[in-house]
Amino acid sequence: MPETEGPLETVSSQKTRLVEALVREHQGAVRGYLVVLGCPGHLLDDLVQDVFLALLRARFEDRGPASTAAYLRKIARHLYLKTMQRERRQPTASELAVAEESWEEFQGSDGGDRYLSALTECLGRLRERARSVIGLRYEERLGREAIAARLGISGEGVKSILARTKRSLRECVQQRLAT
Amino acid sequence: MSDPRERTLEQALERLLEDERHAEERARRIVAAWERGDEADDLAGLDLEPGAEGQPEPGVAGEAPRGRVLSPFRRAAAAALVAASFAAAVWFVARRGDDAPGVPGPAGASGSLVARAVTELGVLRDGASLRAAEVRLGDAVFTDDEPGLLDLQGRGELSLRSRSLVAFGEQGAALVLGELAADAGVPLALGVGFARLELEAGGRARVGLQPDGAAVPADEHPGLWFQRLGDTAPPRVLRVTVSAGSARLVGAGWHEELTSGDVLVLSEQSPPPRALTAAEREAVKARIEELWPYSGKAPVMEAGEDALDALFGYLDASPAHWDVLSEMAQADASDPKQRIGVKTTWVNFLCMHDGEESTRLLRELWLSAPDSFNAGNIVLLAERGAFEFEREVRDMVATRDGTLDDLLLPACRLGADGDADGLALLDEIVATPVDEPWGLVRTWIAACALAHGGAPRAWDGLQASLEDEVEESLDLRSSPRAARLVLLAEFFREHRAEELPSYGLIELRWLAHFRARSAEVQSPGEIRAALAALR
Asked: In angstroms, what separates the C-alpha of B85 from chain A's closest C-alpha?
């Protein structure tokens, strides 16, 4: 009916915008948390989607970003464990505990800002070749062989540079966080 | 990826560097799935009822998307009904039931649902033993070799370690025997044997209950064994570690206030307990320092086994002693100004103790000071079953990140089990020209691991050429080299004969053998005699 079409559409699109905002605000943290728990890459997108769908399905009350993030983490953890059980790759309790600790270390009291800031500084100190490999891998999301072709080195060479660079970034970040 | 720290870096790099378009695209896909009415995959067993997120206050009453997701049309109609709520900037509202979680007291009618396990666990119910995910009032839940995770219906979570038993009665959950980590979504009371632990909302604690000095029969489940013994069951030792928030431990006629970081260990037989006072902690610390065998320069092994045994004996006498040592180690490991030598000494020292406490502490140090671990430490802890070190070993071999000396022991760890990457790396190591004297040792270690892994050619070559090499060295008046060759053969033949060889401590064991025997095998006569004994 034309009389009601307008208001219904308005409310519906308003709700969609709110959902979009929710997903945009929290999807990075949900992905990050699942990665730290150990979620395999090929399951990651599906699991992130499921986490948000589960939240949207549940009767949930918005009590601010921190509360929402905590709730999303809880759902993510449940769904991750369920999925891993199905894949027969369930983590042990101690594996989970260590992963949770790592995530809490990353999050700190500022949602990870300090870690990311330290990482930005450390990225700035990389040598050109390492910076190129990291950029192609994470900015352009290229695979190892594609990076190798782009830079004219072997796939093994890319693997080795990535491993070394990540190790040095990890150490650099830890040093900065410790000071 | 080797461990959670690496995964943390991985996700941070992605968040920092990823092109915004990718994130936007993913967000669009999720919203589209929601608009289509897609369901999350396999939600069975999850409690997503109001309060499950652990929010203590009741929510705003009203309409909300619940049950299955509505079609776009029905969603629009429903949305009209909640326009007022949206106008108030509340985008989702929850309708809470009357059973808002609180401190568990009577948890409901007998047989009512009190917890849900993520995976099915052993459950004792009405005298029968079964597997179930739903836990009801009156049940006792037990884990076998695998741990288990219990959701307390919005009150929090209990993460049970393997071979633990938890009973659910009118007063809530109670650990009978074993170990668990409690995560309180709301104020949570937990029976812990002869006391009750009260956690504030958001509090976390690890609790262990073990028989005091009594051995559990190997073929019995510890919790079931303890329960079966009834009145004749041995007293238990309770260990509580509060990792977040504050808690109160309440016993018969006593109570103890605990805050984050506190560790309390007490026995069922002990007088009214309390945490170590500051003075007692200082006394324990002083005793540890008195027994500390590290001279400041000499390797830990040089302190001698007696000195190590004396300190380990003192530490093992009480978990509280380990707690004090743990604090000392953590303080050094997390101090950026502390010399790396001090940190590596801690790691080397702890590696000499093969026990649960030392392994737990080493795992913690790995998170705070990974640079303090050398390849031998990493391999040793992998051999002791610590998953993060096993991953590190595999990562080191896969990426070949390091010198041959760095990679030798990780390659041995994998190669001795027949792993192709490990064997290939060991082949490279034995084919590398030898620099005296360490290169010789490296070659023998690698050849021994290759032989264990089913590739004995290098090993056979070393044995076949041993006598000629020794005689050649003696002809060249190089007795030290000849003696070293004989001692290497002595040591590694013994190691080769071991069915499950350990490579984590092999360098230290070799050094100990060399030091013990080198004074006895020096002259050409002594060398030839030792060689003859090997035939």
From this structure: 11
